[in-house]
């Protein structure tokens, strides 16, 4: 528990004094907990983890290190007890008129996608069925050799935005951090570019195979207050067209 909790506190850049003020646990007691001279009870430890904004995985690690049972399960998405979650995700991305959408896990693996996303991939001149019928990692697809970034009209800016977002998330996700370390040697230096839109969301443009520029903005939906590690990591991303050219291209692909 000693090293685990101290490392967690330091990773959040929170001093013992600040954590003491947040929780009402004396700074001296916190010091004793971190040095192993004292042992925090389960309720105290959970209160400290709450104050640090620990992820569910970090909470489990700290509890196990302190000799307590983990508080949160990590069920596979295809587990029987996750059926209501799968049904909710299916409804969210396959609803009538739904925008192109995909579901990502914490490592940026695409675990679900709808027909709208397949249409976007086909407009880019790529084999949608082949890409979506096998395991697909969005970061590998974007930043790996021959990556999708070459189809981005705002490549430099979008790459910076995506990499920065993944880097922030990887601070608390070891598997994602390992993936970024693996991809980092293949990266090209990017010069941050100005955003192409003043929308308060991530907006980007893609070059279709027929030469048209497809413009989208992205929204992220996540589960509020999840109690399962897998569920906490899931993100639903919808791509909404921002101009008539893009809306028409999607409609042609849909009905043509």
Question: What's the quick description here?
Answer:
The chain has 256 residues and is of the alpha+beta class.
Detailed description of the structure:
The protein is α+β, with helices and mostly antiparallel strands. The protein folds into 2 domains: 2-65, 434 Repressor (Amino-terminal Domain) (Orthogonal Bundle); 80-255, Beta-Lactamase (2-Layer Sandwich), CATH 3.30.450. It is built from 13 helices and 5 strands. Strands 2-1-5-4-3 form a 5-stranded antiparallel beta sheet, sandwiched between helices. A hairpin with a 5-residue loop joins strand 3 and strand 4. Helix 7 (115-123) packs across helix 13 (244-255) and helix 10 (155-170) packs antiparallel against helix 11. It is elongated. The mean pLDDT is 88.
């Amino acid at each position: 528990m000693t090293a685990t909790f101290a490392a967690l506190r330091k990773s959040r850049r929170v001093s013992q004094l600040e954590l003491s003020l947040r929780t009402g646990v004396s700074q001296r007691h916190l010091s004793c907990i971190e040095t192993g001279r004292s042992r925090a009870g389960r309720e105290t430890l959970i209160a400290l983890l709450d104050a640090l904004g620990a992820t569910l995985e970090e909470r489990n690690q700290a509890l196990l290190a302190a000799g307590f049972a983990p508080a949160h399960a990590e069920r596979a998405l295809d587990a029987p007890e996750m059926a209501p979650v799968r049904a909710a995700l299916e409804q969210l991305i396959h609803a009538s008129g739904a925008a192109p959408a995909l579901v990502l896990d914490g490592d940026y693996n695409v675990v679900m996608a709808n027909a709208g996303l397949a249409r976007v991939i086909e407009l880019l001149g790529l084999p949608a069925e082949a890409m979506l019928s096998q395991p697909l990692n969005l970061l590998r697809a974007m930043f790996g050799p021959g990556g999708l970034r070459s189809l981005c009209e705002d490549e430099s800016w979008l790459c910076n935005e995506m990499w920065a977002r993944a880097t922030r998330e990887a601070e608390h996700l070891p598997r994602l951090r390992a993936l970024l370390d693996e991809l980092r040697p293949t990266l090209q230096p990017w010069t941050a570019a100005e955003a192409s839109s003043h929308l308060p969301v991530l907006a980007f443009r893609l070059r279709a195979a027929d030469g048209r520029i497809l413009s989208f903005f992205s929204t992220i939906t996540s589960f509020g207050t999840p109690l399962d590690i897998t569920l906490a990591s899931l993100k639903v991303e919808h791509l909404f067209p921002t101009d008539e050219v893009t809306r028409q291209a999607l409609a042609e692909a849909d009905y043509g």
